[in-house]
Amino acid sequence: MSQSPRSLTVNGRTYAWPRRPLVVVCVDGCEPDYLARAAAAGVTPWLTAARARGTDRIADCVIPSFTNPNNLSIVTGAPPSVHGICGNYFWDADAGVEVMMNDPKYLRADSILAAFSQAGAAVAVVTAKDKLRRLLGEGLRLGPERAAACFSSERAAETTRAEHGLDDAATWLGRPVPSVYSAALSEFVFAAGVKLMETRRPDLVYLSTTDYVQHKHAPGTPEANAFYQMMDGYLARLDALGATVALTADHGMNGKTDAAGRPQVIYLQDVLDGWIGAGRARVILPITDPYVVHHGALGSFATVHLPGGVDAGAMVTRIGGVAGMEVVLDRDEACRRFELPKDRMGDVVAVSRKDWVIGTAEAKHDLSGLDAPLRSHGGLSEQRVPLIVSRPAPGLAPGTRLRNFDIYDVALNHAA
């Protein structure tokens, strides 16, 4: 476009038009200690320097601290109460079924990416897993003539110009499609982001990785440091190409085991079946998605749909007394505190402690695929995440509470 608007307002927030390309990276499962340990090991020289010269803050992600609600919060600049995506999985009361929340029909707000795309900006999105691609790409105007694209590493060989902005992204990048259970799935995202910047130079790029490494390896381990060293190299290349680089995470990550390394699980469906009768209550685990090998569909957040005649207040108290629980709330209080859509939550919301997870029935969770002590997320203990921009933001007050979904505001409106 020969002329662009000075700013756009999206979901009640105004964003300045980018003065240079902006790359926002959501590093899945990036507990802040990963960055601290990698820096101490000397394997992230670019990121260490960028944090010193730019903006380096700690922010809060949204609860539940899962992938879909946080990625959608980041790209809409709003909490789940606005955009509607409150988990990877939920009970669709209208349809009477449990479903994956990966269809754009569940979105209730436009994204920042879509708004800028429709206003004439070239926007590119690359995700590791395809479960996010349709949600993140909703409303984008795609095509090589617009320097725009939206695809996932997982299905890169299946892309088409009409739907994704380019044909066969794997061949375009010159890389085979990696295993979904590998660090290479995230490296594909970074490599694609660099090539897009080299060849198409979009105005806005959103890169979203997978937390395969973080589920298996704690901060400071050789495998974790190798991942962040890889990431650092690609971020340095994006910076050298003239982009502002901004980084945050969808959630942190913690070990969910006892001192002997055994998983600490509250099988809440089994508990409720014992209290009020088999199958009368319905426990929903919003962490549920097709990729359960590394976490067994166990996270630190659950919502419970109760049958008629069971008092929610009394059940809040009773569930709150179960060993391993941190916070149990009724629907109204949970939605107020965590900014969630009331019509997509159960009667009770339960959040487990840092070293515990919540399951449904023990018989329904297959942990045979775990080849390392269980690490997962979903609770308040995984809420703290980095928020880093490669340029300083002198007008941002030091004491300002930041959310991960403030990153576009910081990068577009505050960064020098």
Number of strands: 19
- Placed side by side, the strands forming the largest sheet appear as 4-19-10-3-9-7-8
Characterize the overall form: globular
Approximately how much beta-strand content do the residues carry?
A: 15-25%
Which bin fits the share of residues in helices?
Answer: 25-40%
Under CATH, the topology of the largest domain is which?
Answer: Alkaline Phosphatase, subunit A
The CATH superfamily title of the largest domain:
Alkaline Phosphatase, subunit A
SSE topology:
Elements: E1 7-10, E2 13-16, E3 22-26, H1 32-40, H2 45-53, E4 55-60, H3 67-76, H4 80-83, E5 89-92, E6 97-100, H5 112-118, E7 123-127, H6 130-137, E8 149-152, H7 161-164, H8 169-173, H9 184-199, E9 204-208, H10 212-216, H11 222-240, E10 244-248, E11 254-255, E12 265-267, H12 268-276, E13 282-284, E14 301-305, H13 312-320, E15 325-330, H14 331-338, E16 348-352, E17 357-359, E18 375-376, E19 384-389, H15 407-414
Parallel strand pairs: 3-9, 3-10, 7-8, 7-9, 12-17
Antiparallel strand pairs: 1-2, 4-19, 5-6, 10-19, 11-18, 13-14, 14-16, 15-16
Helix pairs in contact: 1-11, 3-6, 9-11
